[in-house]
Design a protein that fits this description.
alpha+beta, three-stranded antiparallel beta sheet, two-stranded antiparallel ribbon, 5 strands
Length: 130
Amino acid sequence: MIFGIGIDLCAVERIEKSLQKPTFVAHVFAPQEQALLQALPPRHRAESAAAAFAAKEAFLKAVGTGLGGFALKDLAVLRKTSGAPYFAFSGTAAHFIAQNGLTAHLSLTHESGLAAAYVILEQTSAGTCD
């Protein structure tokens, strides 16, 4: 059953500027994401960071909290060996996912200075309501 759907669009240039601020990077990206981004060439780094930022906001929209409720770095956007993106949840976000029996599906894209993310939260079990 679909629990929630979220979509977000982000300007790569805006995130490229923000990546110059260590406080922004530490606040938004988990250590695993930071390592992934640092391994990329600068232009690809900005595109990937913008897509990851859009994914975090799309997740928050799918949950229905907007920009509140979870620390952004608890919503790590990583890549499978195939290159497919996925969320690695920690902290409050991991608890929320487990409590509600959710699976997150994520799609990312970037083109012409924009990055977009689409998130579907699927309720795969009844969860454990506290």
